[in-house]
Amino acid sequence: MFGYVIPFGKSFDEFGFTYEIPKNFEKDIKIGQIVKIFLGEKETFGVIYEIFEDVPEKIEKSKIKKIEEITNQKSFINGYRIELLKFISKNYFSPIHNSLNLFLPKNLVEKVKKGKLKEKIKEYKYFSEKKNSLTTAQQSLFKEIIKEENKKILLFGVTGSGKTEIYIKLLEKYLKEGKQSLLLIPEIVLTNQIASRLENFFGKNLIILNSTVSEAKKTEYFLDIASGKAKIVIGTRSALFYPFSDLGIIIIDEEHDNSYISDQTPRYNAIEIANKISDLNGCKLLLASGTPSVNSMYKAINGDYKLLNLFEKFKK
């Protein structure tokens, strides 16, 4: 058996490098694992990107190096995330090693390299101290979102119409079903504001992901989300790349905001990434704004999104 390996921090061609998988690794090797390899004469690490039985005849097997070690039995990029990695690399003309950096916290990679990764999965308990009541208009819209066959919905809700109340109801619904939810917010300040409101309903066990979170904490959250224990995640655009194991819905607040477009390589658009995730794993996608982007309105008119309106002001 052979596999493509993406070395960390190295420039190379589109797919990475081909390595032979030793016989004693064949039962344990999985896509998304971090492995130890030699690149030239230098020992380094990379991620298994693809596994295949044989290589083309034009390649001399005798010159192919072997994978030295599987550093951890856990697969860190698997399922829909491998396909998402391919999509980002191709769609945004980004070398695959650059795209890979989006998916793994630096702290996690370093711990795996040193054999010091310890999984301490936290028990997440969610509760509701406060009842979330919806107006007639909000309740009607909530039911439409749940029943709508199109998994992608654009909510055109004016400022003050109570979109957050609908978000809370949706988070509660998916929590009861045992599924994970991701709420994207464009700015750090707004993330903290909305998180404070949600804590009244779900307690302190919300995961908040933004640029102020330490690398060590990112690794902790990464493992908690991958385990499926963490159910409600609030964050800025980078939260899309965490390893959700059973994602029920992605909600994107203020979907028109320019901060959803990355200004660093790869220069991805979080709205496009969320759409791709919905395509890959079947989760529902709710885009919401009081001033929807031209692109989203165009998709709604063409039927790619279901358009729902909420123009009634919400009175608490």
Oligomer: single chain
Find the CATH superfamily of the largest domain.
P-loop containing nucleotide triphosphate hydrolases
- Category from helices, strands and their pairing: alpha/beta
Largest sheet: 7 strands, parallel
> Which stretches of 5+ consecutive residues score pLDDT under 50?
none
Word description of this protein:
There is one protein chain. This protein has a seven-stranded parallel sheet, with helices on both faces. The protein has a five-stranded antiparallel sheet with strand order 2-1-4-3-5. Helix 1 (80-91) packs antiparallel against helix 8 and helix 4 (136-147) crosses helix 5 (163-176). The chain contains nine helices and twelve strands. The protein has helices spanning 80-91, 96-100, 106-114, 136-147, 163-176, 188-202, 215-227, 270-281, 294-301, and strands at 2-7, 17-20, 34-39, 42-52, 69-70, 152-157, 180-184, 207-209, 232-235, 247-252, 284-289, 306-310. The longest helix has 15 residues, at 188-202. The chain folds into two domains: 2-114, GIY-YIG endonuclease, CATH 3.40.1440.60; 136-310, 3-Layer(aba) Sandwich (Rossmann fold). The chain is elongated. Helix 7 links the parallel strand 8 and strand 9. With 316 residues, the protein is an alpha/beta fold.
